Amino acid sequence: MTVREKETTLYIGPQHPGITGNMMVKLKVTGDTIQRAETHVGYLHRGFEKLMERRLWMQSFPIVCRICVPEPDPNEENLARAIEEIEGREVPERAKYIRVLMLELSRMAAYLLWFGGQSGSAGLYTMPQWTVGDRDYILDLFEELTGGRVYHMYIWPGGVRRDLPEGFEKKVLSTMDYLEKRLKDYDRLMLDNAIFQKRAKGVGVIPKDKALEWGVVGAPLRGTGIRSDVRIDDPYEVYDKLNFIVPTAEGGDVWARALVRRAEFEQSISIVRQVIEMMPKGEYYNKVPNPLKWKIPPGDAYVKTESARGEFGYYVVSDGSDKARRVHVRGPAYVHGVSLLENILAGANLADVSFIMNSLGTCPPEIER
CB 283: neighbour CB atoms within 10 A? Predict the structure, then answer.
């Protein structure tokens, strides 16, 4: 007698520890095989874009940090650069180097969270304890420089809010030395681990011929063998003066994405060292008028940066008033967490849901912004 398998509906999240943030995935499963997946986002603070259209220009900077909590600095940099482009405001060279320093430290902090989350999804719970602890050393640097560990409000139009404190460069280099040594421990526990390899290889595959069509960016795209990075393809700040490579891997699976992020972490260490060595003296801020009365000339600008999750863009329109006429945020999580996730979860094992989600670097507030 043939037993007919029944299709069951399961909901994972937002309370599930393997879910990347406050979101939920509705699954149709037969046995432990996923037939269909549907992403639902909610339970979040929403309306970032509309809030920015009702705030003074400077008042928007505390708002944009919340769009992606693990990596807020690309939001600050994008909004500041869009305003500068509309207004035609020059940024001191020293400020550009400091911005790159902040962006790369932010990228590394985000990747340390990713290393822990990806390993924890495979049952390797020592890894998140290590990486979350090591991430605190980067947060210590943020706190000394900006006064905040997570939200910084440090990059703003005209440059940065304050100069590097005395002895800060030495502390940064010391932290880079420590993290570089720790990479060997991460490799032994994560990448060299037979459990992780078995869970990651051949799982959550993004077809190379579909990656660009689906709008995949960042490490998931580079994990299919396609070399794409805004820092190289459309340089901003001082990235065109720095020497680094864009790592890629073949296969398009969770394993390939892990290799790419591991290699990019090492590249970020190199970039930070170059920035410290090459940083010029001089001004760090081209002062703007009184923020309470500051008006931006009519115009619009689209700028983008390479966040830890991939290409991250802002479209800003000014009508000449003291507030933005329109702000649109284009984050990679919208594609990765909805259309891409729904496509590659079909046919996957139920146990791999959070494992695949972590590998895509989804940040739910980017979706429901």
Answer: 14
Question: Can you name the residues that pair with 159 across neighbouring β-strands?
Answer: 156, 285
The whole-number average pLDDT for the span 12-38 is 83
Non-local (6+) Cβ contacts of 236 within 8 A are 81, 230, 303, 304, 305
Residues 121-136: pLDDT tens digits? 888 989 999 999 999 9
Is this model's pTM higher than 0.85 or not? yes
CB neighbours of residue 34 within 10 Å: 22
Token output for 137: 């050393």
Residue 278 has which token pair?
Answer: 């090459």
Determine the Cα angle at 26 with ends 20 and 27, to 5°.
110
Q: At what angle do helices 93-120 and 353-360 cross, to 10 degrees?
A: 170
Question: How far, in Å, are 184, 193, 276 from residue 181 at the CA level?
Answer: 6, 18, 19
pLDDT tens-digit readout, 301-319: 999 999 999 999 999 999 9
CB burial of residue 155 (10 Å; 0-12, 13-18, 19+): buried
Res 5: pLDDT = 73
Angle, vertex CA 144, rays to CA 139 and CA 145, nearest 5: 95
Q: Which two tokens stand for residue 64?
A: 């944009």
Q: Angle formed by the axes of helices 254-278 and 353-360, to 10°?
A: 30
Give the helix/strand (H/E) hosting 326: strand 324-330
- Ranges of beta strands (E only) in 109-219 are 155-156, 159-160
Q: Which of these, 7, 14, 36, 60, lies nearest to 364 by C-alpha position? A: 14
CB 219 within 8 A of CB 361: yes
Tell me the residue type at 231: R
Go through the domains of the chain in sequence order and give each one's CATH number. 7-367 (1.10.645.10)
